[in-house]
């Protein structure tokens, strides 16, 4: 197995510190219960898969399953309550019976839906076993929303929060905060031959728009018209019989593309442009890995659960400063250009700049196969939320910073 020691990139303060010696890998028995795919959670997801619905979460689940398998663990997968019952050994029926024996898994990866289902079907024994649970939680859960008493007293109760877990039991898609664990996913890394192919085949004035759903194009006519002035615009918008009205006639719309063909399109394109939605997805990383420049809007003021419908009710009030803050902060220029789209001078200048510069394909280490395997391995070996002391990451690897808090005196 290629889980070896390597240097933590100075760029990524939240990468797990893998440069500590790990004990030899012990095989762990793991249940992966994908709550949001169960019928009982009202699976709203599957019907949209082939119609331009969001796939980012599926990318992450697939990569988690692959990593666990490749690392040699025994993995069981459940996507229904019946399977969940069977694996946990709870009697079928209306449930709420505590488990009588020990928990038959060392670890359970699930999501908020799954957590709710386990609560309903394991009764009080969930409390006893919850230190074994890891919650895959795209946008993260802040401590104020997780701590039941604090959340209740201070108005942080949401539909999802107050499970009183250890903050690092929540595993996010991007490294938002050391309060949670960064799980991430894998994007494809190009080999030398493919890099050379890209060098030769980039089309300098070709742009691909981020957004498979026609709704994401609504109200963007002005930006598109300006962009079209400089570049040929391609889209991958789902449609049934005819061109969606939101997509202007000058856009070459390919419809939904299979991953391979999307990859080919990105390899030719110079620019991948986001119009503000979806937030924090995997696609910009794939585009950058294929040598595109990602141009995205800055949000001023930032979006959050306090001011934007999409985030409302999510157990975090983290401020999202652009469509993809990770790309903005940890990748940055020349691969990522984040500007105020409403400032037409800035917008024009950015496109002219993009047509002038050449960039190499780039993939941050933490999103490579090796980075993901290393991280998942380090978590499994070192995270232990069942003992009172949680020694991981080790204290000597901490970076101390000071912060100033302004108190609002009433
Ligand atoms: C690079 O990847 C391509 C396709 O993914 C493969 O056909 C080729 O053999 C690889 N080249 C090298 C040098 O590994
Ligand atoms: C641009 O301005 C409009 C209207 O003032 C606003 O609704 C929109 O969110 C702004 N877009 C960006 C990307 O800042």
UniProtKB/TrEMBL annotation:
<keyword id="KW-0812">Transmembrane</keyword>
<keyword id="KW-0333">Golgi apparatus</keyword>
<comment type="pathway">
    <text>Protein modification; protein glycosylation.</text>
</comment>
<keyword id="KW-1133">Transmembrane helix</keyword>
<dbReference type="Pfam" id="PF15024">
    <property type="entry name" value="Glyco_transf_18"/>
</dbReference>
<keyword id="KW-0472">Membrane</keyword>
<keyword id="KW-0328">Glycosyltransferase</keyword>
<comment type="similarity">
    <text>Belongs to the glycosyltransferase 18 family.</text>
</comment>
<dbReference type="InterPro" id="IPR026116">
    <property type="entry name" value="GT18_cat"/>
</dbReference>
<dbReference type="GO" id="GO:0000139">
    <property type="term" value="C:Golgi membrane"/>
</dbReference>
<dbReference type="GO" id="GO:0006487">
    <property type="term" value="P:protein N-linked glycosylation"/>
</dbReference>
<keyword id="KW-0325">Glycoprotein</keyword>
<dbReference type="InterPro" id="IPR052105">
    <property type="entry name" value="MGAT5_Glycosyltransferase"/>
</dbReference>
<feature type="domain" description="Glycosyltransferase family 18 catalytic">
    <location>
        <begin position="28"/>
        <end position="399"/>
    </location>
</feature>
<keyword id="KW-0735">Signal-anchor</keyword>
<keyword id="KW-0808">Transferase</keyword>
<protein>
    <recommendedName>
        <fullName>alpha-1,6-mannosyl-glycoprotein 6-beta-N-acetylglucosaminyltransferase</fullName>
        <ecNumber>2.4.1.155</ecNumber>
    </recommendedName>
</protein>
<dbReference type="GO" id="GO:0030144">
    <property type="term" value="F:alpha-1,6-mannosylglycoprotein 6-beta-N-acetylglucosaminyltransferase activity"/>
</dbReference>
């Amino acid at each position: 197995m290629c889980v070896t020691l390597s240097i933590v990139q100075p760029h990524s303060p939240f990468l797990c510190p893998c440069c500590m010696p790990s004990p030899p890998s012990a095989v762990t028995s793991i249940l992966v219960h994908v709550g949001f795919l169960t019928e009982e959670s009202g699976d709203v997801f599957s019907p949209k898969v082939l119609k331009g619905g969001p796939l980012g979460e599926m990318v992450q689940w697939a990569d988690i399953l692959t990593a666990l398998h490749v690392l040699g663990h025994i993995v069981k997968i459940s996507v229904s309550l019946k399977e969940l019952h069977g694996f946990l050994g709870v009697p079928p029926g209306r449930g709420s019976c505590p488990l009588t024996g020990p928990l038959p898994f060392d670890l359970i990866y699930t999501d908020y839906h799954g957590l709710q289902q386990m609560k309903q079907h394991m009764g009080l024994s969930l409390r006893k076993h919850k230190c074994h649970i890891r919650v895959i939680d795209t946008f993260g859960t802040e401590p104020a929303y997780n701590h039941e008493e604090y959340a209740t007293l201070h108005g942080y109760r949401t539909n999802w929060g107050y499970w009183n877990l250890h903050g690092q039991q929540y595993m996010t898609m991007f490294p938002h905060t050391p309060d949670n664990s960064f799980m991430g996913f894998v994007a494809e890394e190009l080999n030398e031959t493919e890099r050379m192919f890209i060098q030769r085949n980039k089309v300098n004035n070709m742009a691909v728009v981020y957004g498979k759903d026609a709704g994401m194009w609504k109200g963007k006519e002005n930006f598109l018209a300006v962009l079209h002035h400089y570049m040929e615009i391609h889209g991958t918008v789902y449609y049934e019989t005819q061109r969606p009205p939101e997509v202007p006639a000058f856009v070459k719309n390919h419809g939904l593309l299979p991953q391979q063909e999307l990859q080919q399109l990105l390899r030719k394109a110079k620019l991948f442009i986001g119009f503000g939605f979806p937030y924090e997805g995997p696609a910009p990383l794939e585009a950058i890995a294929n040598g595109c420049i990602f141009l995205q809007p800055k949000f001023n003021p930032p979006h959050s659960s306090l001011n934007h419908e999409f985030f409302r009710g999510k157990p975090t009030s983290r401020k999202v400063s652009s469509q993809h803050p990770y790309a903005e902060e940890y990748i940055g220029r020349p691969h990522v250009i984040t500007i105020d789209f409403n400032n037409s001078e800035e917008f024009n200048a950015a496109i002219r700049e993009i047509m002038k510069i050449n960039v190499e394909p780039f993939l941050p280490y933490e999103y490579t196969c090796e980075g993901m395997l290393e991280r998942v391995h380090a978590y499994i070996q070192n995270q232990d939320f069942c003992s009172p002391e949680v020694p991981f990451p080790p204290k000597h690897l901490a970076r101390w910073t000071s912060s100033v808090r302004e108190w609002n005196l009433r």
